[in-house]
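pls design
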């Protein structure tokens, strides 16, 4: 966790040097917009974490299998529908106006949005594997995933900066592909090793278990929406009131102020 935090802090100036404060601000706003949709699972992930932890603790492997497969199938269906709606709407969205960026960046932002939302949707489904690990009291592997992800990003940006000028599209590709690769590896590893018997299967998808998942998960769903309003709207508000460039110093200041919270969590 400590190394993960340090790399996360070091990543900020490296990315700013690769781009510039305005483009980095645009990137932060776009990422914030994707965070608005973290509640797409309608609380299923939190419900899965609680119910699968209980099933594993009680040794009810059969029920745990149903929870795993049903959660994967339900979230994949929800995210799939959302992504199709997004692809249909994206050609009609004026991202320059949404983010308050230069109109000359409209086409680039439209392409970047597809890349970012594609990564978001794939990661949204794959990250269920990390929830499984936390439910089984193995959060260290999840922390390792974050460390590897950030390490790939920082190495990739350092290499790119030596060969090309700063580009939002290249940054988006690096930051979108990296988490997907890491989550794919973790998912493949855990379901081919220690959790092989819980590997998702259509034969274990049972709608009646959705009620169990939502019983507690729906409460987290409400909390999730509140968190989005509180913590994920700042960048968009600043971008519209001032400019995307002003998002950068705000985020840097926020990272400094978050250090005591990180230390407390450790």
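designed seq:
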């Amino acid at each position: 966790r400590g190394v993960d935090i340090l790399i996360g802090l070091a990543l900020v100036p490296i990315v700013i040097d690769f781009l510039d404060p305005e483009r980095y601000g645009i990137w932060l706003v776009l990422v914030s917009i994707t965070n608005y949709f973290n509640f797409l699972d309608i609380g299923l992930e939190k419900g899965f974490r609680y119910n699968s932890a209980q099933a594993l603790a009680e040794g009810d492997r059969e029920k745990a299998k149903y929870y795993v497969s049903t959660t994967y199938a339900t979230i994949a269906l929800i995210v799939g529908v959302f992504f199709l709606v997004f692809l249909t709407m994206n050609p009609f969205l004026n991202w320059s106006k949404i983010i308050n960026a230069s109109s000359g960046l409209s086409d680039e932002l439209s392409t970047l949005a597809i890349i970012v939302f594609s990564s978001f949707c794939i990661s949204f489904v794959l990250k269920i594997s990390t929830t499984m690990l936390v439910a089984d009291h193995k959060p260290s592997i999840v922390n390792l995933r974050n460390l590897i992800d950030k390490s790939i990003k920082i190495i990739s940006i350092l290499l790119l900066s030596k060969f090309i000028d700063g580009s939002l599209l290249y940054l988006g590709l690096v930051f979108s592909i990296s988490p997907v690769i890491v989550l794919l590896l973790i998912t493949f590893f855990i379901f081919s090793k220690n959790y092989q018997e819980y590997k998702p299967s259509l034969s274990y998808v049972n709608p009646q278990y959705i009620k169990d998942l939502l019983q507690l998960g729906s409460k987290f769903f409400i909390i999730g929406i509140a968190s989005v309003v509180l913590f994920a709207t700042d960048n968009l508000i600043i971008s519209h009131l001032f400019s995307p460039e002003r998002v950068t110093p705000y985020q840097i200041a926020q990272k400094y102020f978050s250090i005591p919270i990180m230390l407390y969590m450790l």
